[in-house]
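Why do we care about 3D structure at all? Because function follows from shape, and shape follows, mostly, from sequence. That is the central idea of this module. The next example makes it concrete: a single protein chain, its amino acid sequence, and then its structure expressed as tokens.
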Amino acid sequence: MRKYIAAIDQGTTSSRCIIFDHEGSPVGSGQLEHEQIYPQAGWVEHDPMEIWANVKTAVSQAITNAGITPDQIAAIGITNQRETAVVWNKLTGKPYCNAIVWQDTRTDELCKMFGDEGGADRYRQQTGLPLATYFSAPKVRWILDNIPNVREAANHGIALFGTIDSWLIWNLTGGAKGGVHVTDVTNASRTMLMDLKTLAWSPTIAAEMDIPMEMLPDIRPSSQIYGYTTSNTPFGSGVPIAGDLGDQQAAMAGQACFDVGDVKNTYGTGCFMLLNTGEEIVHSSNGLLTTVCYQFGEEKAVYALEGSIAITGALVQWLRDNLGLIKDAAEIETCAQQVEDNGDVYFVPAFSGLFAPYWRDDARGAIVGLTRFANKGHICRAALEATAFQTRELLDAMQADVGAEIAAIKVDGGMVHNELLMQFQADVLDIPIVRPKVAETTALGAAYAAGLAVGFWSGKTAVRQQWRMEKTWNPSPDEYARTALYAQWKKAVTKTFDWK
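And the structure:
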């Protein structure tokens, strides 16, 4: 009987399940979007119960579309939107409130309070992260302080915290009837509670943030059998859950970025560039994050430098849903091609403040350079160019931190099919942009992690051999995009500071 690996990819806007064969090719999938909840300005929430229901439906769809049966699945890998915080009752299985999404900025005052002693870099040496609303720990503290009965339940070991991977694994392995409460090193490294050296929760930081240790999941490697599915899941009982990676780290695995110096950039809701630094923990002097890249089984952890941008693909959604400027995401390229250039219009999408390399919670979005000449095409083009310019800022910071030039970048995510954007990206960076044959690299990385844990694939060498290039964009010899246009972008960014 032929076997397959199932990957659950729980993202910011949707939940997917993709079934992969031994060649690393997708053979079936299912996907559902979930509601984006905005209770007030700066707040972003998801309903964890809706996500769990959608995951189960997506799994059923994928199995049906692949034309297989659940007993043909050798293992399950999970990848997830990181930093999004869920707190639930382990006796009832119900969340105490909606999940607070990574984009949410309600914890800005908490972050300032924690920074009063030691500044924004108070925990950076230990965790690799600055104090920012982006990360999970302040979100958990907010829930403890503001949602009735949660702190008391946490003190009695009843309230559990987890990022979305923990929530899904707990439910897949039985939920309130014995669910396994775990996370992996990559997701734990995004909470601001894990020590990068020991790969363990820091009792000191947890105490200073007043977060009970009893709430926290066990930290495990990214590739290991964590538990087995139960009969009330679409997989049936007994399928091992054996891979767990935050979405950006999963994309690194899916792109086979296993060597020091390998770089990938994922164009999704936000944009995330990671550089493999091997077993060395490299602390950034240029606004980047230090994070765990992956840990497979008993191997030593591999680390990465990461540049995080909050709003890229989400800007296209905003133009579609909030302004009605386009009817679907693909239309933005057609609209942008109707003009020769951006008409000196620049769009800085600091909707949730600015992440790397600025880390400015006080910034807010701005469109600058508008004249009567500007039209819909210029705004669409400026929105696409914003993604490329922000990526250039990450690349500059990365090269400064490691003291070496990066030769090429592997790319993935929904926006990599936008030809105009990819060519402009190569022009702005002055290096080749490489797209893989299998575009679903995030889900594929989770599948690889699970498959390696159960012997479905023999090792990283086998994974490397499966990676194939589909297309390369080479930079234009004209330097205008990476000099004059980029200089104007940097000027535009300064107009968003100190707004809030």
